[in-house]
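lol ok so funny story. i was supposed to be doing the assay writeup but got distracted and ended up predicting the structure for this chain instead. priorities right. anyway since i did it might as well share w the group, maybe its usefull for someone
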Amino acid sequence: MQGLVITKNADLFSVECDDKIFTVKPSGKTKGKGIFVGDKVEFSDVITGVMPRRNLLIRPPVANIDRIFIVIAPIPKPDLVLVDKIIIYCVLNAIEPIIVLNKKDLASQEFIDKIDREYAHSYKIVKVSAKNGDVEELKEQITGLCVMAGQSAVGKSSIINAILGNDEKVGSLSKRTERGRQTTRLVKLFKINGEYLADTAGFSLLDLSMVSSLNERELGSYYPEFLKGMENCKYRSCLHEGGGECGVIKMLENGEITQVRYENYLKILQELRNGKRY
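and the output, tada:
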């Protein structure tokens, strides 16, 4: 039989097959090779094989992700460099990024307009309020296997609970630090209208590195609004840091690229140059 790993607890795996759940262990053949939530496996009494993966996150350990919901909120202040890093990570791993603006009930129109200005040109943005249970638009975006990422205290746990209709208590926001309590839990897949949402509420992606093959000369191509300008750079090796012969700088000066996105690019470029891990 073939099935989908929906939970993992030590050497015990819950595998879904034809809407039934089987609890199995790895066989001697597969033990020690790494089996993750999201893996498609062959099994009988034990797991006998793992199907090829499209992608794999190590922290949290989830395989075969289709979409990452990048959650931001007006409080705490969004780390848009982190948002850009997650987007780049998604593109490198054939994952679709969707930006989720939570706490829209607390967001000013100025804040909403800013996020639209920075990202709506290239990425889907969904606006929700987990507190008010206003998550239906996001629920409609759950396709394949989805996970959530973002800073602490943006409401990832609250969003999951609102989608599932659970009463599970989540970490509350601290007025003093503007940071939430972060809980650790096993990765689990919830089935929603035939699709899957992974419970990875503590997932910030702060400790993930980019694929080692990414280099500074490629970085600009992961900013879609840069592409037109890059075609007009005089030098193929241009890193778009300045100079009158750079098409990206000309677009920046003409207001076709936002200052925020350009500065994010420069910060990530410097991290690549310094060999830092994300």
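The first strand starts at residue 2 and ends at 9. Confidence is low (pLDDT under 50) at residues 168-184.
back to the writeup now i swear
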